[in-house]
Amino acid sequence: MARVAKKSLSASTFILALFGVWIAVLLIGSPAISQELRLVTSPWPPSNYLDDEGQPTGLSVAIIDAIKDKLGLSTPIEVIPWARGYKIAQSEPNILLFTAARTPEREEMGFTFIAPAVMWTHGLLAKKDSGIDIQSLEGARLQGLTAVGVRGSWQVKLLQEAGIDTVAADDQETCARMLLAGRVDVWITSQLQASVVLENIDAEQSSVEPVFIHRRSPSYLMVSNGTDPQLLKKWQDAFDELKNSGALHKVAEEWSERLGIPLIYDLEEGFSAKNDALDTTG
Q1: Quick one: CA dihedral 265, 266, 271, 276, positive or negative?
Q2: How many Å apart are CA 255 and CA 206, to the nearest integer?
Q3: Could you give the domains of the chain?
Q4: pLDDT in tens, 74-102
Q5: What pLDDT score was predicted for residue 165?
Q6: pLDDT score recorded for residue 232
Q7: Rounded distance, CA 2 to CA 25, Å?
Q8: Which of 67, 142, 172, 222 has a CA that sits 20 to 30 A from residue 38's CA?
Q9: 94-113 burial, b if ≥16 CB within 10 A, otherwise e?
Q10: 164, 145 in Cβ contact below 8 A?
Q11: pLDDT score of 117 more than 70
C-alpha cells in the first residue's frame, strides 16, 4: 500500500509541475498579460523636470500622471539625461519617452507619437545688448558665433549641420549658465523654456534676448519601436479621452499661475505660451 501511495504522489507531483510550466509559458507568451510601458523623460522645463523635492513635474508630466490615473497605474517616471533616454528608446520596446520632436528620421525608425504635449518656438537667445544681428543660421556661421544646446537633441544636430561651432551640454540649466558666463554667444531654446530655466538658476529674465527665430514645432509623447500594440492602444485611448474631457485646459490654468506665464492648451498643438517672446515674432 505504501508503494502505491508513493507512486500516486509522484504522478501528482509530475502533473502539477507540467501544469506550472504550461502556466509560465502562457504568462510569458500571452500578449494580454504584457508589461507596462517604461516611462522615461529628461530635464526639459517646464515640460518635464525635477521639483525641489526631486520629484518629476512639468506640463508633460501632468499629462502622463492624468493618463496613469485613468489607467490605474503607479508606474514611476525615470528622469535621466536626454541622450541616455533616447538611446534606451532606440534599443528597447515598450518605452514611452517624453517629450520628443516628431521628425521624419524618427518616424522611419519606427517610433509612434501618441500626442502633442508642448508647442515650442525654437530660436537663438543671446545675452541682453549683445549686439548680435543675424537673419539665418548661415549668418550665425559667417559671424563665427558659438552656440550651446542639449546633448543628443535635434537642436544641437541642426546647428552642427549648419556649420556652427556648438557645445553640447547635459541640460538646459548648464546651457543658460554657459551663455550668461560668456562661454558661448547663443543658446538654442525657446522663451517658454528659458523663462523657467533662468528662474531656476536665479538669473534675471531680462538678461537674455531672442536674436533669431528658427521654427515652431510641437514635442510629443513618443513610444519606441516594437511596443506591444495593446499597450499602445490603451495609452492612446486614455489620452484621447483625457484631451476631450477638457481636463488639460484646467492644467494650463494651474500651470499659468504656477509659472507666472499665461498658457493655453490646444488639441492639435498641446500646451503653449500666449506671450512667448519668440512666439510673437515667428
Answers
A1: negative
A2: 22
A3: 38-120+218-274 (3.40.190.10), 121-214 (3.40.190.10)
A4: 999 999 999 999 999 999 999 999 999 99
A5: 98
A6: 97
A7: 35
A8: 172
A9: bbbbbbbbeeeebeeeebbb
A10: yes
A11: yes
pLDDT at position 261 is: 81
- Alpha-carbon gap, residue 118 to 121, rounded angstroms: 10
Name the residue type at position 129: D
> Quick check: 275 and 262 in contact, CB under 8 A?
yes
Place of cell 489620452: 239
Q: Which residues contact 272 (CB under 8 A, 6 or more apart)?
A: 118, 119, 120, 192, 263, 264, 266, 279
As a whole number of angstroms, the distance between CA 23 and CA 21 comes to 5
The three cell numbers locating residue 250: 484646467
- pTM for the model stands at 0.70
Residue 220 grid coordinates = 510629443
User: With 90 as the cut, is the pLDDT of residue 40 above it?
Assistant: yes
